[in-house]
Amino acid sequence: MTFRTWEECAEDRSDWRLTAIRETEEAMNTALAQKRARRRERQEQPQQSSHRLSTADSVHSCLGDIMSATAIMSENKLETAPFDPRFPNQNQAKYCYQSFVDYHRCQKLKGEEYEPCEYFKKVFTSICPNAWVEKWNDQLEAGTFPGTI
After folding, report:
1. What's the rounded Cα separation, in Å, for the pair 14 and 147?
2. Burial track 70-86 (b if 16+ CB lie within 10 A, e otherwise)
3. Keywords of this protein's UniProt record, alphabetized (predicted)?
4. Nearest to 123 by CA among 143, 139, 106
5. What are 9-64's pLDDT values in tens digits?
6. Is the distance from CB of 140 to CB of 104 less than 8 angstroms?
7. What's the CA gap between 137 and 131, in Å, rounded?
8. Which residues, including other chains, have CB under 8 Å from residue 139's CB and lie 6 or more apart?
């Protein structure tokens, strides 16, 4: 049995690394050449001016829609819920559920017209998915809501 020296092992490793680097460079050069060829093909193809006009018209109409939507959103000022130290994590599902429960508890204790309860409603309407809120409201009406209110 013959043993190899550290130097011989290091030479083999460096040869392997050089081979891997060369293969990677060749693959990158091939990909770059293919990309340049595709770009040249696209530039050589005739461009259709009518397509440009229809695209420009559609962009203009989309901008109009966006501007009108922005005007509507500025009338209905949207705000995200403020930070609550009870829920420091990125996943806000617990904050959503707790705000829903707190809103209904507040309404039950203070009455429907009590203004501070609206804070909890704003929080859960901005954080919770609509499907969850609808499901919870249906459960409240049916008396099957899992939380205690």
Report:
1. 65
2. eeeeeeeeeeebeeeee
3. Disulfide bond, Mitochondrion
4. 106
5. 666 666 666 676 777 788 778 878 888 888 888 888 766 554 454 554 554 454 45
6. yes
7. 10
8. 145, 146
